[in-house]
Structure prediction request, 341 residues.
Amino acid sequence: MASVVDQTKKLTITRRSSLLRRLLATRELGPLGVLIILLIGFDWANPAFLSAMNITNVLGYVAELGIVALGMTMLMTAGEFDLTVGAVFGFTPCLLFLLYKLQIMGFAAAFAASMTVALLIGLVNGILVTKVGISSLITTIAMQMVIRGVTLYMTNGFASTTWEVESSLKRILIGSVVRIEGSPLLASLFWLLGFAALLYFILNYTRFGNWATATGGNINSARARGVNTDRVKIILFAACALLSAFAGITDSLRVRTAYPTAGTGMELEVIAMVVIGGTALAGGRGTIIGTLIGVLILRGIQNGIIIVGVPGLAYNIFVGGIVVIMMGIYAVFGKKQAGET
Prediction:
């Protein structure tokens, strides 16, 4: 009888330890812990941080950056990254503005044309990387310079202000959905959640998601199993450009201005969000939920340091420190998992 009890206790302990290991191996757990600590810390420093008005304000600035980060997550899962996302973010709304303001096209047609150009940019990036064999680093740095140059040339370096549009499409893109204490939650936030749900399903429950993960994990093994890795990467480069363009347009509509320099430096911030969220920098592992948490962490820091009175210039210090901490945590648990296997 005693031996049966002992065996039951051992089995319970084993199950608990196994559950604990699985929880610790969950890459979203680390960034979620960081987010909770930041929320508690900023709220302790200034209770206004978790007020309904401030939370609504933070969520209003999450959507565009989050949409770009989702595209980068999918691409990085496949082992590549795109440094043109910030340039596309700034270029597309400027192109849309010119097409519409010069009465070349109606708003809906100009939107479709601008998104098509962004799609072509993504396809060119993907083809240069996969078919020509240029690394994504060199390809996207060069394309970033080209896109920025074109944007500045066609706008003469000036922002396109008085961005007033009366269109049902505009209301669909950024219309006010609900108000909380007088502050609106725009449709762009719900676009973010919709894209996140779609990409979460694709990454975790479809054959294409498995192909993307396999491509980033071991490209030769993926090819041996019949995965068309070139096609996977080209599709993801195109998707990344499309999401960046969509985010840029919604952002310009929200602030009613198309800035030719919009999105400058965004690519590094986006990669930081994705890495903090738990997506492997080398590919083979991606997490949509982690990316959303990473976006909330960075936007929370940006808002929190202002709320508590820390100079906004300290933002990069916080972000850099968290990136180093999270990469260290992932490295430690990665070694432990490798040791157990």
Q: What stands out?
A: The chain has one domain: 29-335. The two ends are 34 Å apart (CA to CA). Strands lie at 176-180, 183-186.
